[in-house]
UniProtKB/TrEMBL annotation:
Pfam families: MA3, MIF4G. Residues 597-646, 667-678 have a biased composition (Basic residues). This is MIF4G-domain-containing protein. One of its GO terms (cellular component) is catalytic step 2 spliceosome. Residues 304-333 have a biased composition (Acidic residues). GO terms for molecular function: RNA binding.
């Protein structure tokens, strides 16, 4: 009974597999892994068609997964896994999977070519089949004018030529065909192909390489192609001049095969007997399946050697060592203080900004850089720095900064921070760089990409500004005025909700600062913005007097409380007045001595007294000292008491002359001189 059940189950599974045979073009359908395992366990006969079909599906899935997983870092681990699969039976699957993956991701073409180069050294039939299919596909795409397929195919052939899987004659034939009747598409494909394979052709066939470049030069001089294609040819000549430094034939990580070990296939573009063997993509029953599997097992053992057994025996030890190494890595954290990552980020940003055609392309590329969190300000600084280094301001940078500000609030905050840093260090910039930066921020404020509250950092007064900052503010607001107009600018400046951020630019704390701001705005042609300031300045003295009156009234109430104490001490004040007068007289004598010493330092005293003795007595009358002019002079230079004493004899004779009439004292002093003259 149990044997009958097993027979029924086996029959059902076989019918189920057969029913999936024609569901797809490749002869099978997707089978979930758990069902695949159940079907393999249920089938005992390994030579049956059902078992072969299941293993075929598993082989296809395994090859496809390994090819999709391969990259530069893991290629040395993927290749042994590929050889572990039956690539002789699945060579059609391998070629189809790798061509499909290469078409979908062209940047990985060097990796796929390196994998094929390694496989070709051990299984040349696989390399020959892949190259035949690529040539057939290129012919078909060229006849159909399928540019996308031609680009993918020629790129793959170029890298297979670099890896010596294909002969250089095939590459030269493709270039000759593309440039025989040049069109925009054919020349573009030829330029791309030449950039990939040009370094290899220059080494192995320099004469043919020169002939190809002469043909490119002729096409360029004919001028029948588009300007864009002409520019591509010029760039190609520059790449050749630089010796293909950005397009090496084989990078170091993918140079896995020795040149003498490689097998080169002499397949020509004109070969008519090329067979792509498309039937290898579809399952076909193999009556000698077991024998063929044993043969490939021997080939696999020869290729891989004893690596598998060593790997199996050392799995436990390797697991332990990996765990220990992971623990060591977790224990030791390396901190990079050289800022190498930051420098590399700035370099990438700079190259992206300078190489983009327009601001949209630049923003798209910069967003793909995935700037690390916390380093967003580096992008803002690099945009400002690139803008400042231009000879004149380019709107390209303003549009780029505007796009970032409108993408996310993070960029707004970072650009505001950059504005504050630039304003605080504006004295370090040259005038041309300063002008470009001011116009960049003016664009951001014009388009409302940045909030106008950022102006709160600007303080227009004599102490907080420099010549550079005044020039920066001048250019900034002149650009804003030119864009939005004086009327709109004035409305924004008078917005009651924005008075606090603008208080530094329109100060009302001190009449001196107010006058400075009024003069500044008027000098740069924006005097209309200062009407409110002028009104405040006219009313400022009245407001100051009101404040003083209020302070005096408050102080008067305090003094009335202390009037009683002051009246009780009036006697002491009177008694102290005599002492004050005596002290005044002493101070007078001291002041005389000091003033006398100063007068001696200016002119010799002897000549001065001679001059006085010769002058008439009328010049020394008290009326002269009472004239407004002499009083003004005495006030303007020194206190009048000291000046008067400096021009007079000592205090005792001075007070005597005042008590008597001045004319008598002068006449009595001059009489002896007249007698002596007689």
């Amino acid at each position: 009974m149990s044997s009958e059940v097993e027979t029924i189950v086996h029959t059902n599974k076989t019918d189920e597999v057969d029913s999936l045979r024609f569901t797809t073009r490749a002869g099978g359908a997707y089978i979930p892994p758990h069902r695949m395992r159940q079907m393999q366990q249920s089938i005992k006969d390994t030579s049956s068609e059902a078992y072969q079909r299941i293993t075929w599906e598993a082989l296809k899935k395994s090859i496809n997964g390994l090819i999709n997983k391969v990259n530069t870092s893991n290629i040395k681990m993927i290749i042994p896994e590929l050889f572990a699969e039956n690539l002789v039976r699945g060579r059609g699957l391998y070629c189809r999977s790798i061509m499909k993956a290469q078409t979908a991701s062209l940047p990985f073409t060097p990796v796929y070519a390196a994998v094929t180069a390694v496989v070709n050294t051990k299984l040349p039939a696989v390399g020959a089949l892949l190259l035949s299919r690529l040539v057939v596909q290129f012919r078909r795409a060229f006849r159909r004018n399928d540019k996308t397929s031609c680009l993918a195919t020629t790129t793959f052939i170029a890298h297979l030529t670099n890896q010596l899987v294909a002969h250089e004659i095939l590459a030269l034939q493709i270039l000759a065909l593309l440039l025989e009747r040049p069109t925009d598409d054919s020349v573009e494909i030829a330029v791309g192909f030449m950039r990939e394979v040009g370094a290899h052709l220059a080494n192995v066939s320099p004469k043919a390489n020169n002939a190809i470049y002469e043909r490119f030069r002729a096409v360029l001089h004919e001028g029948e192609i588009d300007k864009r294609i002409q520019y591509m040819i010029e760039v190609l000549f520059q790449v050749r001049k630089d010796k293909y430094k950005d397009n090496p034939p084989i990078i170091k990580e993918l140079d896995l095969v020795e040149e003498e070990d490689q097998i080169t296939h002499n397949i020509s573009l004109d070969d008519e007997d090329l067979d792509p063997e498309d039937m290898l993509n579809i399952f076909k029953f193999d009556p000698d399946y077991t024998e063929n599997e044993e043969k490939y097992s021997a080939i696999k053992a020869e290729i891989l050697g004893d690596d598998e057994s060593e790997d199996e025996s050392g799995t436990s030890g390797s697991d332990e060592s990996e765990e220990e190494s992971e623990e060591d890595e977790e224990a030791m954290e390396i901190v990079d203080k050289t800022n190498a990552d930051l420098i590399e980020l700035r370099r990438k940003i700079y190259l992206t900004v300078m190489s983009s055609v327009n601001f949209e392309e630049a923003c798209h590329k910069l967003m793909k850089l995935h700037v690390p969190e916390g380093h967003e300000i580096e992008l803002c600084n690099m945009i400002i720095e690139c803008c400042s280094q231009e000879r004149t301001y380019l709107k390209y940078y303003g549009l780029m900064a505007e796009r970032f500000c409108k993408l996310n609030r993070i960029w707004v905050d970072n650009f505001v921070q950059c504005f504050e840093e630039v304003y605080n260090t504006i004295h370090r910039y040259e005038t041309n760089r300063l002008r470009n930066i001011a116009k960049l921020f003016a664009h951001l404020f014009n388009t409302d990409a940045l909030p106008w509250t950022a102006f709160q950092i600007i303080k227009l007064n004599e102490e907080d500004t420099t010549s550079a900052s005044r020039i920066f503010v001048k250019i900034l607001f002149q650009e804003i005025n030119e864009f939005i107009g004086l009327k709109v600018l004035k409305e924004r400046m008078l917005d009651p909700f924005m008075q606090e951020p603008f208080s530094g630019m329109f100060p009302k704390d001190n009449p001196k600062n107010t006058r400075f701001a009024i003069n500044y705005w008027t000098s740069i042609g924006l005097g209309a913005l200062t009407e409110d300031l002028r009104e405040w300045l006219r009313n400022a003295p009245k407001q100051i007097m009101k404040r003083r009156d209020s302070s005096d009234s408050s102080s008067g109430s305090d003094s009335s409380d202390s009037s009683d104490s002051s009246s009780s001490g009036s006697d002491s004040d009177d008694s102290g007045s005599s002492s004050d007068s005596s002290s005044d007289s002493e101070s007078d004598s001291d002041s005389y001595s000091s003033s006398h010493s100063r007068s001696r330092s200016r002119t010799p005293p002897r000549t001065r007294y001679r001059f006085r003795s010769r002058t008439p007595s009328r010049s020394r009358t008290p009326s002269r000292s009472r004239t407004p002019r002499s009083a003004y002079r005495s006030r303007s230079r020194t206190p009048p008491r000291q000046r008067y004493r400096s021009h007079s004899p000592p205090s005792r004779s001075r007070y005597r002359s005042r008590s008597s009439t001045p004319s008598r004292s002068r006449s009595s002093s001059r009489r002896p001189s007249k007698r002596s003259r007689r």
